[in-house]
Design goal:
Layout (H helix, E strand, L loop, with lengths): L1 H4 L3 H9 L6 H11 L3 H4 L11
């Protein structure tokens, strides 16, 4: 994934663990590598486990 996104593997680990904030450019590159829209990576509603 890191190679596809043109970012360091360690950076991806830091994004995943919340130790580093992702830049908009890196978010766009990650979304492109995953073939999704950047907004899909930021939509946490689908992970909400509480019923409303």
């Amino acid at each position: 994934m890191a190679l596809l996104c043109n970012v360091e593997y360690a950076d991806i680990q830091r994004y995943e663990t919340g130790k580093q904030n992702i830049t908009l450019l890196s978010l766009a590159e990650l979304a492109k590598a995953l073939d999704v829209e950047p907004r899909e990576l930021l939509d946490f509603r689908k992970f909400d486990t509480q019923s409303t």
